[in-house]
Structure formats: C-alpha cells, structure tokens
Design goal:
The chain is an all-alpha fold. Among the domains are: 2-138, no CATH class; 199-293 and 302-433, no CATH class; 579-657. 75% of the residues lie in helices and 0% in strands. The chain has 30 helices and no strands. The protein has helices at 2-9, 17-39, 45-63, 74-97, 99-104, 110-130, 133-147, 172-180, 189-210, 213-225, 231-244, 250-268, 272-284, 296-304, 308-336, 350-357, 361-372, 377-403, 407-452, 454-466, 470-485, 490-508, 513-523, 535-544, 548-558, 561-571, 574-577, 581-603, 612-624, 630-656. 50% of the residues are buried.
Length: 657
C-alpha cells in the first residue's frame, strides 16, 4: 500500500525530447486513423482491431520504459524496448496484410502461429507496464490453464486441477490460433469495443479537456453550491458528476477537481482525510455517470446487445441515487461541524460562468440528441468530437470579432488552435493506452474461457458456494471484485468478472441480463474506495496531505451507495427494466428513502442528532424495503418515514429550546 501511495506522489523521470516527439507523432497518427475509421471509412474487424492494437503497443512501449517511469531507460532499456516497438508494428501490420492467406488456410501456417505467440507476449508485457503486474499474471494464468490438460502442452498440471476444472488441454498451435486468428481472442469483442466506441469517446473527452471544459464544470459547480453549508464539498460532488461525463476515470477526477476542492474543504473545516475521502468517493461516481461511464456502457452494450442509449437512460437514476447519497452525507457532516457556506464575493456567478462556457454544453446536447435519433455510438462520438472543436473555434472567433483585435491576434488564435488540436489528439491516444491494453488481455481471458468451457464450470462453482442463495452470491461477487480490483483497473475488472460470474447471475439466479451487468460493473468500482487498496483514496490523500489508509476509510464511508444501489437493482428490478408506472415510481421512492435512512443510521444525524434506539430501529426498516413482498416493503417504508419524522420533530424541539 505504501508503494502505491508513493507512486502517486513521486515524479517520473523525464523522457528525452526525441521520444516525446515520437510519442506525439504516433499519438496523432492513431487519433487521426480512429477518426477516419469512425466517420469517413469504417473498416472490417480484421483491419481496424489489429492496426489499433499495433498503434497502442508502440505507444505503450514508448510511454512506459521497461524499468519503470522513475528510472532512465538507458542503452539496456532501449535494447529491450526497440525490438518490442518493432513487434508492435508487426502486430498492426501482419493480419491486415495477410488476411487472404490466413482465411484460405485449412490449418494455421507456422508463421501465423509464431506471430500469434509474439502478439500474446507483447500484450502481456504491455499490460505489465500500462495496467499493472496483476493483469499480466491473470492473463498468464488463463493461458497456462488452457495448456493444463491431458492433450495439452502441460499435461502434468491436470493432476493439480480439481475435477470440475479439468479439460482436454490444448496445443500451442491451437491456442495461438484462438488468440490471434479469430474473433474470440485478442481481436475479439473487448478490443473491438476499445478500438471503436471507447477510443472515439476518449478522444472526445480529451478535446473537451484541452478546450477548458474541466474548468467550466468546476466553476459551475462552485457557482451553484458554494453558498450552501459545506459548499466546496458539495461542489466536489457536482463537479465530479460533470467531469465524469468527460474523463470517466476516478483517479483523473480526483487530481482534476480535487486540486481545487480539497484545499477549500480543508480551509472550511473538514479534516484532511475527510476532504480527500469525499473527493475520492465523488470522483468514483464518474465511472457510473452517463453518458461515458468509464467506457463501461459501450462494453455493456456489446455484451448484452442492448442499445447504448438504453443503457445510458437506465443508468441515470442509479447515478442520481449515488451522487445524492454522497451529497446528503456531505451535508450532514457540514451541519454536524457547524459549517457555513462560502462568501458570495469568493464565488463565480452562474451567469458569468455560463456566459464564458455555454458552448461546452452544446456538444453534450448534440451527443444525447444523436443517440436518441439512433446513430451508432461510434458515429455519435465522431460528430460530438467535431462539434466541441467547432464550438471552441466559434467561441474564439466570436471573441476576436467582438474585441476588434488585429490580424496578428488572429494569427495567434490560429497557432493556439493548432497547438490545442495536437495536444488533444495526443492526449486522446495516451488516455486510450491503458483501457485498450486491458481489453486486449481481456480478449485472452475470453478466448480461454470459450475454448475450455470455464464459464459454465465457474457458474457451477458459484452456485455450490452460495448454496443457491442470491444474497450470498452477490457477496461473493463483491469479494471477487475487491480482490481483482487490487491489481486491475475498473474496466478490466468488470470484463473479467462478467465473463466468469455473469452467466451464473443470469442463468442460475435469474437476474435479468442487463441488471447482472450493471451490478458487476458497479461492484467493480469498489477497489477505488475500499481499503486496503483504494487508488482514488490514495490520490485524494496525496492532495490532502493525509494518511492513505485513513483517507480510504473516509472514502469507503461516503461511497456506501456503491454497495446498496446494486442490491436495489436486483431486488427492485423495475427501476432498471421498467414496468407499470406506479410500480416504477414506488420502487424509486423506496430507493430514495432507504438511502436517506441509511445515511442517518451511518451518521447518527439527519435534521438533528438521532438517538441510538432510532438508529437501531431504522436498520430492519431499511432491510424491509429490499424484501420481495409489497406488504413488507410498505411496512419498512412506513417505519422509515415515522422514525425520520420523529427526528425532525425532535430537532425542531431542540431549536425552540
């Protein structure tokens, strides 16, 4: 844990200028290739995915030196990395240039097997650098498992496998073919989503970021919430919701919005660990905030065959519940500490903020409108990226014309515009490296699961461990997500988990397919805020100057909706899959009051201090609203309302006294 925290606070060793220029060139080339494929000339599966992976591998080995970011690469480092970079070029070139020979071969050619082995090794090494050693180990374990059978390359390992996990085993030729010569391995669905939908929206976020959208959302959050009690903390919640629609990364949200919000929270009276924890919990919500959802919505759409716009729409209310729960906990903490809002003169006005940055809202409106009109997510991302670029250009030209500036000023605007375009294209490519590499390793896992039938075996094991109890099964998913999250980013953890436990939740426990995916995706976020490894919490601690573990505990407390809301999706499924309007409204009402009651129990405070017996009595009432019986739900709701009403009356009495 200390190493992880230290890595967040250390300064990487600077790369030579020649390498930085090469990274810029490759990044721009990748972004332009992706834009061309998204909006001009769509490419076939075995053209776009290998070329995308080739670019990503080259970028990865350039950005992440073999000995780590904190040591100079040196001659030995280049002796290792130069062949790997050449290998990345080979990966991007091989399948597209040999597609006819590969398709017409009855058996895999030996040269194709060799290139397949090289591709697998390069992907695993790229994962070690860009994602972490955990992802590489998981991918390697799955490959070894494919070999571990009586007819495989490692037959002796079959004796070490429990009976249910045994399989026939596969040769190197068969496994290499599965990984790189078909659509069920590295070039399968996860990388396909990364090479199409995800990249173009990552680029959209990069364009928004370099044009100043991040500052706009932060200023707007301060302008709307700053005067309230605990204003900076509430601004952190609102700004993180807004930034989530741009970056979709919890740690990126922490370092972006936290640089402003955490110092202000500390100045207002929040403890350093509390300020860092609030920011970490709020920033984690960026991963579940539509429309991007940290690339999860795109993967979910492909896995479930549910239209992307439908996933976005059904995710709005759960995201509202999550941020609402954090907002309430922040408000309670502010009231308990006797805080007041910030002075009006210290805050920007909503009118001025909107006057300066209203054009940042237009691409988001256009994005949603195009999705509703039925355009594909990839084409929508292409048009949205162009829209934000055009909006920024139009805003700059309007300012130039209104000020009556000279042509010299126009030349300066053009130079600045070109520089920002280059920056956005490079940033988009850089930001895509981690998720694309993770998706490539996920393709290895998908390929092995399909080859060996491991998915069905894992479902049987999960059913046996839970004894058919859905609540225990969900608890096992939480534990698995937390363990995986210690070494994997959220998107990678979601892919691995959904491949293994998704079929069991859907087929064995009867959870609707979309809800099963949403539950797994939500639980995959918990490693950002749950000790002992809470990366968003560590990033918040680095900014707040607090202890990592203490900050992570605070983040875990404020992010409790991450655990309760998925349960509500499962036991009150109409809030996701719909139904009669009265039922949907009723379940939505239950979700809101249950989260309010839970916050009151957790803090011992709502309108005023809450007596111990009331907190104890609220616990069964909250549990009751999850019960699959209308009468039990109604009894729980009545109990919650009565107890919260008593708290309000008592707080009024205390004020009058």
């Amino acid at each position: 844990m200390a190493d992880t925290f230290d890595a967040l606070t250390r300064t990487p060793h600077p790369q030579p200028k020649s390498v930085l220029k090469l990274i810029t060139v490759v990044g721009i080339a990748l972004s332009l290739f992706q834009l061309w494929a998204a909006g001009v000339q769509p490419l076939g599966l075995f053209f776009q995915r290998p070329i995308h992976l080739g670019f990503i591998l080259v970028l990865c080995f350039l950005i992440y030196p073999v000995f780590g970011a904190y040591k100079p690469r040196g001659a030995l480092g280049w002796a290792i990395d130069a062949p790997l970079i050449a290998g990345g070029v080979l990966v991007g070139f091989w399948v597209p240039s040999n597609i006819d020979a590969i398709a017409n071969a009855i058996f895999p050619r030996q040269i194709d097997v060799i290139v397949g082995v090289i591709t697998v090794l390069l992907v695993l090494e790229a994962a070690r650098r860009a994602v972490g050693l955990g992802m590489t180990i998981i991918g390697a374990v799955f490959l070894v498992y494919a070999f571990a059978g009586r007819r495989g390359e490692l037959p002796w390992l079959a004796d070490w496998l429990p009976g249910i996990l045994n399989h026939r085993g596969y040769s190197l030729d068969r496994l290499a073919s599965q990984m790189t010569l078909g659509a069920e391995g590295i070039f399968g669905l996860p990388l396909g989503v990364a090479a199409t939908f995800i990249f173009v929206f990552v680029l959209f976020g990069a364009v928004l970021e370099v044009t100043g959208a991040g500052k706009f959302f932060i200023d707007l959050a301060y302008a709307t919430t700053g005067k309230q009690r605990g204003g900076p903390a509430k601004a952190a919640v609102v700004a993180s919701a807004g930034m989530g629609s741009i970056s979709g990364s919890a740690i990126a949200n922490v370092v972006t919005t936290g640089a402003f919000t955490i110092p202000l929270m500390k100045r207002l009276g929040y403890k350093p660990a509390q300020a860092g924890g609030i920011e970490a919990a709020a920033s984690t919500g960026g991963q579940i905030m539509p429309p991007l959802m940290g690339a999860g919505a795109f993967l979910m759409s492909e896995f479930t065959q549910v239209p992307y716009i439908d996933i976005v729409l059904v995710s709005i209310f759960p995201a509202f519940l999550y941020f609402g729960a954090i907002y309430l906990l922040v408000h309670i903490a502010a009231v308990k500490l006797g805080m007041q809002g910030m002075a009006a003169e210290d805050l920007p006005s909503v009118r001025n903020v909107l006057a300066e940055g209203w054009h940042f809202l237009l691409p988001l409106v256009a994005l949603i409108a195009l999705l509703v009109m039925g355009y594909s997510p990839m084409r929508v991302g292409f048009y949205a990226t162009l829209a934000i670029a055009l909006a920024a250009i139009g805003r700059a030209l309007w300012g130039w014309m209104a000020s009556g500036a000279s042509m010299e000023a126009m030349k300066g605007l053009i130079v600045a515009g070109v520089a920002k375009t280059i920056e956005a294209l490079e940033l988009g490519a850089r930001n895509a490296v981690t998720v694309s590499v993770a998706c490539a390793v996920a393709g290895i896992i998908v390929g092995v699961v399909g080859l060996t039938g491991l998915g069905l075996k894992f479902s049987a094991m999960m059913l046996a461990l839970s004894q058919g109890n859905l609540l225990i099964a969900l608890f096992l998913v939480v534990i698995a997500s937390l363990i995986l999250g210690m070494g994997l980013p959220v998107t990678a953890a979601y892919i691995v988990l959904i491949i293994l436990v998704g079929p069991a939740l859907h087929n064995e426990f009867g959870v609707p397919l979309l809800i099963a995916h949403l539950v797994v995706f939500w639980y995959s976020q918990d490693s950002n805020v749950t000790p002992p490894v809470a990366l968003a919490g560590f990033a918040g601690a680095a900014i707040a100057g607090s202890k990592p573990l203490e900050t992570s505990v605070q983040a875990w407390k404020f992010a409790k909706g991450l655990y309760l809301i998925p349960l509500f999706m499962v036991y009150n499924e109409s809030i996701i899959i719909g139904g009669p309007i009265p039922l949907v409204v009723w379940n939505g009402f239950l979700a809101i009051i249950a989260l309010v009651a839970f916050a009151a129990v957790l803090e011992g405070f709502l309108w005023g201090p809450m007596k111990l017996w009331m907190r104890v009595a609220l616990v069964p009432a909250v549990i009751a609203v999850f019960w699959p019986s209308l009468y039990v739900e109604a009894a729980g709701a009545v109990g919650i309302l009565v107890l919260l009403g008593l708290n309000r009356q008592q707080s009024k009495g205390m004020v009058m006294a």
